[in-house]
Amino acid sequence: MNIRDDNPQTAFSLVADFDGDMNALLQTQHEDTLPALALRNMMLFPGVVGSVTIGRPMSLKVVSQSLKKGAIIAVLAQKNGDVEDPDRKDLFDEGVAARVMRMIDLPNGNSMAILQTYGAIKLEHIKRRKPTMRVEVSSIPEVTYNKDDKEFAVLADACRDAVIRFLKLNEGMRSEEAAFAVRNISHPAFLVNFICSNMQLSQEDRYTLFQLHDMRERAFKLLQMLNRECQFAQIKHDIQNQTREELDQQQREYFLHQQIKNIQTELGEDGNSDVAEIERKAEKLTFPDKVKELFKREVEKLKRLNQQSPDYNVQLNYLQTLVALPWGINTEDNLNIKNAEHVLERDHYGMEKVKERILEHLATLRYRKAEKAPILCLVGPPGVGKTSLGRSIAEALGRKYVRISLGGVHDEAEIRGHRRTYIGAMPGRIVKGIMKAESSNPLFVLDEIDKVSENNYNGDPHSALLEVLDPEQNNAFHDNYLDVDYDLSKIFFIATANTLQTIPQPLLDRMEVIEVEGYLTEEKKEIARRHLIPKEQKVFDFGDGAKLKFTPAAIEYIIEKYTRESGVRQLEKQVDKIFRKVAFLTSKSEDGKMPFADRSIKPADIEALLGKPLFNRDKYQGNKYAGVVTGLAWTAVGGEILFIETSVSRSKGPKLTLTGNLGDVMKESAVLALEYIKSHADTLNIDYRVFDHWGIHIHVPEGATPKDGPSAGITIATSIASALTQRRVRDHIAMTGEITLRGRVLPVGGIKEKILAAKRAGITDIMISEDNRKDIEDINARYIEGLSFHFVENVQDVLRFALLDEKVEHAIDLTVEDDSADNSDAHKQATDNKVAVRLLKEK
Description:
five-stranded mixed barrel; alpha/beta; single chain; five-stranded parallel beta sheet
């Protein structure tokens, strides 16, 4: 038997051998309305004597009054022992009538009441709950059997034997006391009710027995429950006998888990909550057939593992990853073209080509039978909005957004994941991104794909990306950790890069490259007005609803004097700096007001807020010097003008000097240009002897800045020709183009950025390769407004237009004096050579 001391109710029921008339006891008369005592975690049966620990003041009052007056009370059991103030719904429908025989004060401050129970009663309704509970009840007749009923007596003895057997299997401090009490009860009906009151059963099981008011049926049901409890106890006893040896901590924990597992197996329950949780999640997923079979095998493997085993957590993590993937879960695309166009225009200014390509994709989704998401690569300088464009596209499509930064990735496992044989293995970034998105068709931004590390020691991440970004094979992407194929074909991939030079060609072939060009000053002004300044206005509150404003001239002043970039990242920093400076000045002012008239920033205020200008706008420097020609260059921060300077000085023998921190390709361009001018010296009226007596020095200013690339070829050739002929270069002209040794002008890139730089510098005429004509035609007309383009095919075309016939002021005289002695010796040597050759032929 089990003593129940769950505060505030139970103690061991008292045993008194009952030899009187059981029927007379059960048929004791009582009133229809009785004070009520609610019991927690126990239930008394008719005819038994039981002890109840009283803790609640209301219960103590009921018991005290019953003892004092000798009145009968209703004893009802609660369904949930945690309820402190029970209502009708918290009580079982049936209980017993009882009288308080005695009260005992306990050391802990509570009291124990000894109750004699009578017949069963039914709770009709509660008449009141305070200060003490009173209920209206009706009697329930009980069918009893006396000692002379042999069948019932045998059934009661069977229950007695089952209880004693159970007590032997559960050896404890009070097992012998309980066995002694059971052995000394002679009346079979009292014995059955006594066991029902004191056996360790759930409240639901007790109430099931209580509702059987035929004692024979109650005894049969009790015997079934006792046999079940004996079987559980036997299983526990067998496990204890098998594991009686010395156990270390791990073995002891395993033994305890094994006990729970065996008991739950007998009960038909699954004791592993981890497995139950995984299987519950799996029911919501649509696995492919092969994955479904794999999942079942792996779950069975997890069930066989001990939870304390190191392999258990490895297996559990794998299954949790498997069910965390959104198998068969896709978001529905919003194919409203007008909505997408509105979102793109709202978040980004300019970028016509990119927006057009995105809208084309959305339009084709309506009519394309087989959905195959595009793979775009946005290439452009920093700060032009490549990454943020991905978020806008995801919003327009209604897809989940995931961004993965690939800068510095040097391990193939970052993409494909680790094999599970490794300690700490985990899936790759692609699978993690899908888990984060909770959708199989999110929009992925692969940021900085051009900055994947080339110093690899664990595989090649570029090669791993080939499978990810190949529309023909990414429908079965294989992650090493998952070890199953996952379909990536519905994912919209957008890669971003600053340059294509570091992206391997096989990877580049799998993407559609879209150039995101730099912004004009006018575009930057509009971006600052629409996005950058309102963003800061929301952050800063200067009181009274005051908002710091900028005049258009002030915005342009910041762009021209404090930033040098194709994007707007530095512009955003400068705007934020102005807001911070204004906040500082406002907090220092005596009246706490903004120290600017009309709360508006003007160009005159900028220098006080940002300090001296950081940059000067590139300006055309004129053509009064021979050998100075303006070129156009592309850099990571946009286009710039480039000045090529060539000077000549007397020298013994041919000499070419190059300065200005030039790269190898640019040095080769200089050598090619010089060789071309040498071979066409007659066309330019240059004495060929000049190259033997005059040294040529080519310099590109801003020597601290590295410069490289072939696009300065025609600029260098023009500069050399101007220096050697001392002819002026046409006003306000700039040029860009690569040259070959035979003088052909080849096309170059970065045309738009170079044109923007030319406009900033006040250039009016641009010379460019004929093959670049198509690039000019693709540029928006507003970018080339005010510019004249001259398309050339060879260097002669360049020199004819770029070099004027007039000489520069203070032109250098490059004539070479005729040295007759030298000429005589040279003529004599040439004659001797010709004679020697003729004699050899004759022989």
